[in-house]
Model the fold of this input.
Amino acid sequence: MSLLLSRRDLEFLLYEWIDVERLTARERFAEHSRETFDAALELAETIATEHFAPHNKLADAHEPTFDGERVHLVPEVARALEVYFGSGLMTASMDEAVGGGQLPHTVASAAMAWFQAANAGTSGYPFLTLANANLLLAHGSPEQVERWVRPMLEGRFLGTMCLSEPGAGSSLADVTTRAEPQADGSYRLFGNKMWISAGEHELSENIVHLVLARVVGAPAGVKGLSLFVVPKVLPDGTRNDVTLAGLNHKMGFRGTTNTLLNFGERGGAVGDLVGEEGRGLAAMFHMMNEARIGVGLGATALGYTGYLKSLRYAKERLQGRPVGTGGAPVPIAEHADVKRMLLAQKSYVEGALALLLYCSRLVDEEKTAADPAARAAAHLLLEVLTPIAKSWPSQWCLAANDLAIQVHGGYGYTRDYDVEQHYRDNRLNPIHEGTHGIQAQDLLGRKVVMDGGAGLLALVGAIRSTIERAGDSEQAAALSAVVDRVVEVTRTIWAPGDPELGLANASLYLEAVGHTVVAWMWLEQVLAAGDAVGDFYDGKRAAAAYFFRYELPRTAPQLDLLATLDRTTIDTPTAWL
Done:
């Protein structure tokens, strides 16, 4: 059995719950079947196991170095990427017109999870490149697609996203990188970009940077931002004016270079405008939202592999005896408190995987449903779920990694075992693509209130539909009560019409709604399991019971506090901190 992910769980979620085979009735997926889906998943598992996982610890121990001229990585990274791009998995869900296989996004997401579980650092390169390519396919010109996207899909070029700056961070309204129009229609860019993953390396012939900058004379704020393609190497083969100023040394994801880039040290970096001036952030959100769901999937994958490894350890490690008995030592998995930690991990990672595959299924629905109303409904629900899908796994699958270390005892925080690295790698995900606080403000400040509250109604309606199918079960009743409370508290928060007060405790709101959503995912899985017998299905029901009895009750005091409109975080002077 793999220690990366559970193939059995993926099969349950894809075929017994989501029923992804139904998509083959749609024109886009008509050439596919269960056999082609399984073949893609098996190929992903094989490549991830044989080419990504073996150098995970090596790339972590020997992180990238910069000698002043070149960046050096362990050679296994390049070899793994060569196999990955050669497999066709990069373009698995893309249009046939660009060489894609037109697999459902749901299946492609499940395939990508194998690589994220096997090696977070190496999988970062195709992850960013795919999001970069999808943005250009959606917003770029035919010439940009031909020049930049096709080589990226072949693995000859790799891509990045360049948003943050040393002085701006997540505050994109304060971006200062400037773009100067040229007579030939191009632009020259000047500025600095920080925290750019995959920003410099020699893994590919070229690096395609997507850069947010402000055209000279553009207004302040986010409305003045435009988006540019700025390649490392220009089409004529000369080096563009993009310079590596240094590598950032992270606690995790060490196999992915993380850089400070200078644009315009020698007269200006040549850039090509994507779309229209002043529409850069709107275009960039295409990549950011895709990346946010991808970050959630990566966090889930890291939590999942940590769970499987701690489960194996707990079944093999002999220590202690049952309470009140003598005899020989038993596997630590037999002890109640260790079972608690394993059940918690199982409930987090399997609940998160269900959520991310559900979101992926919504992507397929919004793209291919025959009914325009169904497409719109899927889009709206996905909009509401995106900040949860990014942040909940990043918080709670990290908690699973913490528990995996605890299950290992003293061995857990040594480098002899994998779980300490999984924790370090996963600790970056609460910051990747917008912090926990940013996602919380997006959920409470935008998503649940947009279109007169249509976002919240869409989410609540989907959850209540599941509750109705569950009948009068104890879990359905518990979830129904929490959903009613979420609606009530959301109204209370916004009743005063004070955004500062309303958003002061947005993170608490995100955590409460996130737990509500994952409880919904568990109720869905219980319904999908039905009366099926066997350890797998009994395990699903046990994990669901754990989540409803130990986790969902966390929301009660959180929602009670939110309803008081507490001002502690607003009114505390910084001098007191």
About this structure: The first helix runs from residue 7 to 17. The CA atoms of residues 364 and 521 lie 18 Å apart. The beta strands are 65-66, 71-72, 157-162, 178-181, 187-197, 206-215, 225-231, 242-247, 258-263, 269-274. The longest strand covers residues 187-197.
